[in-house]
Amino acid sequence: MDQEKIIVLDFGGQYNQLIARRVRECGVYSEVLPCDTPAGDYADAALRGIILTGGPNSVDAQDALRCGMEIFQLGVPVLGICYGMQLMAAMLGGAVGQAEVPEFGFTDMTCRAHPLFEDVPGQSVVWMNHHDRVLALPKGFCGIASTAHCVHTAMADDARMLYGVQFHPEVNHTAHGARMLQNFVRNICKCTGSWRVADTEGALIAGIAAQVGPQGRVVAGLSGGVDSSVAAVLVHRALGERLTCIFVDHGLLRQDEARQVMDYYGGKLGLHIIMVDAKERFLSKLRGVIDPETKRKIIGAEFIRVFEEESAKVGADYLMQGTIYPDVIESGFGKAAVIKSHHNVGGLPENVRFKGLVEPLRMLFKDEVRALGEHMGIPHELVWRQPFPGPGLAIRIMGEVTEERLRMVRQSDAILRQEVARAGLEQDIWQYFTVFTGVQSVGVMGDERTYDYCIAVRAVTSTDAMTVEFAPLPYELMRTLSSRIISEVAGVNRVVYDITSKPPGTIEWE
Ligand code: XMP
Fold this sequence. Notes:
Radius of gyration: 26 Å
Shape: globular
Bound molecules: xanthosine-5'-monophosphate
Largest sheet: 9 strands, mixed
Distance between the termini: 40 Å
Number of helices: 13
C-alpha cells in the first residue's frame, strides 16, 4: 500500500471518515491520522496531499486542536475543510472570528473558475455547518468562492498549493462535493487514481503470513458477518490449516442460521471450523434478566468465556479480529490496538495469552471489505448479508429472553425474510427484522377472544447505519406479513410497523 496516498488529519469533525472514503473512491489510498501526528510519520515519497478536517473547536480556544506548522512547508497540496480552513488561515497570518450569521445546512455558493472547481457550476448548493469563519485571508491567498453571508467561502494560494473550503464537500448534500474532492486529488495533488481495494489482496495475505511467521497458529471467532468472513478467508489463504475458526451458537441466532454458517464456512469456503453449542449456557445466564444493557453485558461476558475455553484448546498464538477502519477511527486510533469491545462479541478475551492480533481489514471501509470479498469469490449472499448484532435476537426481545419468545421472533423473522425475498427487495433494504414487543393486546381469532403478543416489523434504509429511514414497504407486502405472522406464529395476534427514523431512534430496539 505504499503507492500514492493522501493523509486526512482529524480535528474531531463528524464527517472525517467520509473524507477518506471519498478520496479512496477517487482511487487514491487515504488514511485518517490524529491532527497532531508529526509530519515525519507520514511524509514519505508516497504522500501526494493532506486534508485538514472540520472540528468542533474555535481556532482561538485554549484547547483548540492544531497541527504542526511544518505541514504547510512540505511542498504537497493541503486542503483545509471548515475548521481546517480556519486553522490554516489563522496559522498563516489571516484572521478568523465569529460569523455575524452562522451558516448551517444547504447554502447557495458562487465560485470562480479554478482547478478545484473544474466542472462545478458557478452557482451551486453546498453544505455548511459553522459559527466561525475566515475574516481576512492570509498573505498569498485569494478568495475563490463566496456565499451571501461568508465572503471567504473558499480560498487558494496556488503558488504554495494551499486551499481551504468553509463548506463540507465530503457530504452528499454538497451537490458537487465529490467532484471537488476529485479535482483536489487529480488536478491539484496530481494523483493517477489507480488504487483499487481488489489489488490489495496479495499484500494483505503476505502481511498476515509475515506477521504470524512460518509456524504461528491463528484462532478466529466467526459470526457469519461479512467482516469476520472476509478476514477469515484472507487468513486462510495466508496460513491454510493453521487457522482454526470457532463459531459459538449462543442460541440467539435466526432460524437455520447455525446450519447455514457451518455450510458456508466448512463447505463452500473450506475453512477449518468448530461449532460450539452453548445455547443452554446463554439461556440460563439470561433467565430473569430484563435490562437491555445487562443482557448485552451478560452475553458479551459469556461469549468471551466460551471463546476462551475453546481457543485454549486450539492453542493458537494469534487472535484474528474482523476489525474494520471505522472501528479503528472511532476507538481513537492507537488505542484501537487494545481490541475494541463491540465487534460482534460484545467484549474480548483478556485472559487468553495471545502474542498478538491479526486484523487484516483494519484499514478498510465496509464497502471496500465487500468489494474485496466479492473479488475473492466469497458467496454473494455472505458478502451482502444484512448486519446482525452480536447479542443476536436477545436485543430484539423486550424483557426476559425465553425459548417461547425466541420462537416467536425466529418464526416471524423467517416469514419477513421470505416475503422480502419474494418481493425482490433484499438489496433495497439495509436491515429488516422483527421484534418481540412484550405487549399483549386483545383480538379475535375464530370467534374466540385472544390476549396475545404484538410483533413489530422493523425495516430500514441506510448507507452506513449512522442515519436511517424506515423503509417504504409496499402495501401488499405489509398485508401478507401481517396475515402470515398472525396465522403462522402461535401466540401472536397483532403486527405493527415501526416508522421511527434514526436519529432519534436506533435500528435495534435495545
Ligand atoms: P443501532 O441499534 O445502534 O445499530 O442503530 C446500528 C447497527 O449496529 C448493529 N448493532 C450491533 N452490532 N454488536 C454488533 O455487532 C452489537 O452489540 C450491536 N448492536 C447493534 C445493528 O444491528 C445495526 O446494524
